[in-house]
Design goal:
Blueprint lengths: L5 H12 L27 H25 L10 H27 L4 H6 L7 H9 L5 H18 L8 H7 L13 H7 L8 H12 L2 H8 L5
């Protein structure tokens, strides 16, 4: 259930911030009795409810672990308290997965509008990484990148439109190729480690998730060894 948390959180925040990027299907956006005539009543109901269900199901797991922790070496009646929450947990997770599948299957992404919503500040870490590739320790580049962000805010100039001289004024180690940093596609592709955002990494994650659970366990077994 914990793996389902980030999806509704991310999409719910994105819908609230830029509602045109990820339009919510009507079947998953209204409760019974809501005013369907008012645009303000269109809320990502299913996603918000999934967030609540995640807390509920994880609470059951914590309760079970607490009960097990207190068991003596011989059987006693403490485990009777585990049956009801565990049954509710199984049903809650099963229902939530079905809802999540329905939401994801009907979700419509607007890539053009999402690209238009990109902000140069998203590439602040890429500025730091740029200097790291030039041999500057990250403990320094982190602060240098912060000064570039501050300069952009103070001057009102988007960070990708700052001149080479302005970058040079922040730190002498910036080169004329600094403008190449402000490429969103390149930024995504550079995160090629496992779990990264590059197309290759994402496809690898998809392959892992499509494997049967028995094939996925070796990936997590080191956590419990």
């Amino acid at each position: 259930m914990g793996g389902q948390i980030r999806k509704p959180e991310t999409t719910a925040m994105e819908i609230g911030r830029r509602s045109t990027c990820i339009p919510v299907p009507e079947a998953h956006s209204r409760d019974e009795g809501e005013d369907t005539e008012s645009p303000k009543s269109i809320t990502p109901s299913a996603k918000v409810m999934l967030l609540g269900k995640a807390g509920r199901s994880m609470g059951h797991v914590v309760g079970l672990m607490t009960t097990l922790k207190g068991l003596p070496s011989t059987y006693n009646k403490d485990l009777q308290e585990s049956v009801e929450p565990m049954l509710d947990h199984v049903k809650t997770v099963g229902d939530s997965i079905q809802i999540a599948e329905g939401v994801l299957a009907t979700l419509k992404i607007q890539p053009e509008k999402m690209r238009a919503a990109l902000d140069p500040f998203m590439l602040a870490t890429d500025l730091a990484d740029y200097l790291v590739r030039k041999g500057v320790p990250f403990r320094e580049t982190h602060h240098i990148s912060g000064r570039c962000v501050a300069l952009s805010q103070q001057t009102g100039i988007p960070m990708n439109e700052l001149s080479y001289e302005q970058f040079k004024g922040v730190d002498e180690r910036f080169g004329e190729d600094i403008k190449n940093v402000f490429n969103y596609d390149t930024s995504v592709e550079m995160r090629a480690a496992k779990g990264g955002t590059s197309p290759w990494s994402v496809l690898e994650q998809v392959k892992v998730l499509k494997r049967p659970p028995s094939h996925q366990w070796p990936l997590f077994s080191p956590l419990f060894s």
